[in-house]
Amino acid sequence: MFVCSCFGITEEQVRRHASAGHCTPRQIASESKAGTDCGSCVRRIQALLGRGAGCARRELLEQRPAGETAAPAPPAGPGAVAAPAAVAVVAATAAETPVTAGAA
User: Looking at the whole model, is its pTM more than 0.85?
Assistant: First the structure.
């Protein structure tokens, strides 16, 4: 069955790309162009890439030992307050952006 009518991409082709390690709609798009024209197939591609799609990279992540996280947690000392990641990114970006006189 066709997933992407614009480029003639089938469910089987999406599954083959997923089994080759392309585990996100963006990675599928870079391999096949599916989802890059009208975009109506992106949700279907996401559904095909869900659990059980045979994505080798996703299966490795799911086999991670219990308690292991993707990134270590920041150290918390007495009175430390963790900032949400989005706030930290905005603050870092604002600190790196030069301010010029008269800029609006």
Answer: no
